[in-house]
Adenylate kinase (Actinacidiphila guanduensis), 221 residues
Amino acid sequence: MRIVLVGPPGAGKGTQAAFLAKNLSIPHISTGDLFRANISQGTDLGKQAKAYMDAGNLVPDEVTIGMAEDRLDQADAADGFLLDGFPRNEQQARALDAYLARHGIALDGVLDLEVPEDEVVKRIAGRRICRNDSAHVFHVENQKPAVEGVCDICGGELYRRDDDAPDKVRNRLEVYHRETEPIIDYYRKQDLVVTISALGPVAEVTRRAMAALRAGSERPA
């Protein structure tokens, strides 16, 4: 299957992408991974991206699109992929369509994870991250550490990132509504969008997503 995953910050896209990719035996391709790989490998696109990032500027669409196309050209993506974080706007969506058309393939579905804004703010603002290892993540309500403010795994200090503050989260949601949400309507016109609630246990959301994708793929063309 060839799938695009969309949803606001805090919808659990990364978590669901990992489970869905494993269940479907397709590579999970995230924008963050694309940037890290290209920068660490010193590719031309990575050097361009780093120059923009070091200057505090947004990376232009053409650079991001180039990275995504290079990744989709790799052998493991020949029979399917799950895109997470790309496309992030309509220009990127049109570029992806053009790439797929050149290769005689098409998307099977666009999975839209739906979460109320208040829930997004609660999820993100409640996150606490270990200063020793950012992979150690807790939550003030859903995943409390045994000792408040202390990482269960290594004993490091837990803190809330500046951009996880409620006002910053709402700003990120505004950017999502302005830049990324329009691609849902773009793909809905192609009858590709399946929307599910991303509320509830992770395993239940994954089950819901798999059922929606299967139902969507079985619709008559």
About this structure: The first strand starts at residue 2 and ends at 6. Residues 107 and 211 are 17 Å apart (CA to CA). DSSP finds nine helices and eight strands in the chain.
